[in-house]
Protein: Methylmalonyl-CoA epimerase
Organism: Streptomyces sp. Y1
Amino acid sequence: MLTRIDHIGIACRDLDKTVEFYRATYGFEVFHTEVNEEQGVREAMLKINDTGDGGASYLQLLEPTRPDSAVGKWMEKNGEGVHHIAFGTADVDGDSEDIRAKGIRVLYEQPRIGSMGSRITFLHPKDCGGVLTELVTAAEPGEHGEH
Ligand code: MC0
């Protein structure tokens, strides 16, 4: 069951500048940063609030590490902006199978590793009204030090 908006992924050209924009404009602070080489992104997670399911909602700022990455290709065409939304679930495996059974393309056979040790998969934007949609199961608290 999908129980929260886990994050909104925002593509940017310069992560440090964009982090500073969100800090100066809204007062949001960086909760976590990492590089995910498989996904080709350098990212910063800005925590917005804890959620009733024991997780949290974030803004995820994404700078491509290479032009042929998913975010690099998308930005080449669209410029900076909202790249995807992500729903949180305790069971990414079960929920992605249920959604696959509805005829929606789930991009990975098995979930892969996302931010902060989470397990993630994506639904094809062409099957989701033009919205690239991610499903996330957060790491157990303590497993990674954050949600
Ligand atoms: C591509 N399309 C999108 C889109 N990306 N539509 C809406 N939102 C997006 N973000 C559209 C294109 O405009 C195009 O439509 C069609 O999908 C095919 O795109 P393409 O440019 O030919 O690119 P493909 O087919 O090679 O790849 C698209 C696909 C890919 C969605 C399969 O980007 C992908 O595998 N994404 C999942 C992984 C990802 O995005 N990783 C980065 C975030 P037209 O009409 O022109 O044909 S990593 C992350 O977020 C992690 C770290 C985390 O949360 O923990």
